[in-house]
User: Fold this.
Amino acid sequence: AQTVTQSQPEMSVQEAETVTLSCTYDTSESNYYLFWYKQPPSRQMILVIRQEAYKQQNATENRFSVNFQKAAKSFSLKISDSQLGDTAMYFCAFMSWIQGAQKLVFGQGTRLTINP
Amino acid sequence: DAGVTQSPTHLIKTRGQQVTLRCSPKSGHDTVSWYQQALGQGPQFIFQYYEEEERQRGNFPDRFSGHQFPNYSSELNVNALLLGDSALYLCASSRGGEWSYNEQFFGPGTRLTVL
Assistant:
């Protein structure tokens, strides 16, 4: 079974700083996707960034980038020039296929606070 | 496009009662997945519906059941409620292609409190 571990329950940084959230996962599969989702107090789960396991190049989306280390099964999220609106719960998630159907497995989350 | 919608927003029930939660998928989506998110935890997969059938199920008891309608909307039913069923229930919709990546879009969730 796949597992996802986020070892930082809470993090706090000043506005405009750079912050890195950690995630490790465990799987025996070779074809999978990894995600970072953001869940603000409004509860809506929003996809931040996606990484395909077969791609060696790390994904980037504006101020968000990942460090994907496949051999180490590590998938960290870096937020540059952090903004107050980045305050939220962040979840790392793993997706693979079972009998053709997608299944998402989430980590426990990291509560990120951006201070003014 | 209204996105994924869920109803009701909040719900309070007592132990032993039954509850039905509803989800309307994003336009063009035919697959609905349900997740349970306990307070302070990550979401856990309950089950997925595609073409009106349960395609996959997580580690949840039979008290949790669902249904998908011809218009792709879905219901989650929980019988014999326990205090531990108190959680945020999230619905996510996607296109249903097998063995291909299709982004799941989440609704705002239904907060269920069992007293």
